Structure to design on (78 residues):
């Protein structure tokens, strides 16, 4: 029997509860409104398919810091 689920517009997260899905979407790190590294045009994957992904910031900013707090002042729409 099929069931209704809600999916985030920015990532693959799903939830059966609209409220929980809505709350997730507001805080999702892939939501451009939150200005996290993964939605920034300065976010680059310098990895190689054999070795895996290796993300860097083209502005040489501390990505770990901004992944924790979001709202980078150098964030640019991708």
């Amino acid at each position: 029997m099929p069931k209704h689920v809600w999916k985030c517009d920015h990532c693959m997260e799903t939830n059966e509860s609209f409220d929980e899905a809505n709350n997730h979407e507001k805080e999702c790190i892939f939501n451009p409104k939150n200005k996290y590294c993964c939605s920034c045009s300065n976010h680059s994957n310098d990895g190689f398919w054999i070795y895996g992904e290796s993300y860097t910031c083209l502005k040489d900013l501390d990505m770990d810091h901004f992944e924790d707090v979001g709202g980078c002042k150098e964030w640019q729409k991708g």
Remarks:
- The two ends are 39 Å apart (CA to CA).
- The chain has a mean pLDDT of 88.
- Strands lie at 6-7, 14-15, 43-45, 55-57.
